[in-house]
Fold this protein.
Amino acid sequence: RYLFSTGSIALQELEWHLFDVIILFGIAYTLKENAHVRVDIFYDAMSKRKQAIINIFGSLVFALPITLLIFYYSWDYTLEAYNMGEGSADPGGLPHRWIVRSVIPASSAFLVLSIAYVVLTQIKTLQLSAKAKTEEQGG
């Protein structure tokens, strides 16, 4: 912008729109890849069974309800922007703000799928843990 002595409102807005997309879809990907933030100093010292229980509990009690709330309220938020033809308030800004707003419910839907994946894989871990424990006691 300084080199060419020019600026573009549309490009500045596009920048934060792209950041929105990266961050919102990155949340679901990070959860699926088990790379989200937690207190690993305690978590790593726990057994696989305890880790699975914590992951299931956290997913169902904390992540899923807030994700469903975000999905529910963002749906109307996106439709409202679409119906009113909302665009940028800045001259030269991007039209069709509903496009970036639609990322919110879409990413929430992907996050629900990621939560389901986490819960199912952790249930499988619990089953394998229980099977190994019974084999250990029986054998």
